[in-house]
């Protein structure tokens, strides 16, 4: 069973996320302060386990921001996975000759479908 102080500290850590390159703990805690609306000193007190009590509204804010961050990360992960599946499907369904008038047709110089094959030119008669 966790206490409110330890849960609040873990939520602050979760919201802060991994430190960015060139970042320090103070900057990460300042970001947590901005997104939660809690003061800098209050966030630092929670981080350093100096907060004697955590009010319900503070805990609610921390939980909501942590949930929002998790939801955003899951949506980003799902979006990237969807893009990867689309790219794989596009690669698997690659058509040897582009459809006339398509952007791929224009990139290839407007060569008509099958124009490079001798059978289409009537040479096989």
Quick structural gist:
With about 120 residues, the protein is mostly helical. About 60% of the residues lie in helices and about 0% in strands.
Lay out the secondary structure.
Blueprint: H1 4-16, H2 25-36, H3 40-47, H4 56-92, H5 103-107
Helix pairs in contact: 1-4, 2-3
3D architecture notes:
60% of the residues lie in helices and 0% in strands. The chain has 125 residues and is mostly helical. It has one domain (4-94). The mean pLDDT is 81.
**Secondary structure category:** mainly alpha
How would you spell out the order of helices and strands? HHHHH
The number of distinct structural domains comes to 1
Approximate strand percentage: under 5%
* First and last CA, distance: 86 Å
The helix count comes to 5
Radius of gyration: 28 Å
Low-pLDDT residue spans: none
Q: What's the overall average pLDDT, rounded?
A: 81
**Overall shape:** elongated
Major β-sheet profile: none
Percent of residues in helices? 55-70%
SS elements, strand count: 0
């Amino acid at each position: 069973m966790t206490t409110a102080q330890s849960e609040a500290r873990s939520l602050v850590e979760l919201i802060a996320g991994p430190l960015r390159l060139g970042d320090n703990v103070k900057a990460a805690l300042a970001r947590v302060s901005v997104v939660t609306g809690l003061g800098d000193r209050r966030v630092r007190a929670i981080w350093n386990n100096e907060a004697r009590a955590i009010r319900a509204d503070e805990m609610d804010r921390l939980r909501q921001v942590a949930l929002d961050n998790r939801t955003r990360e899951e949506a980003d992960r799902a979006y990237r996975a969807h893009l990867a599946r689309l790219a794989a499907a596009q690669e698997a369904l690659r058509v040897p000759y582009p459809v006339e008038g398509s952007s791929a047709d224009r990139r290839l110089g407007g060569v008509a479908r099958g124009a490079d094959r001798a059978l289409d030119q009537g040479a096989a008669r």
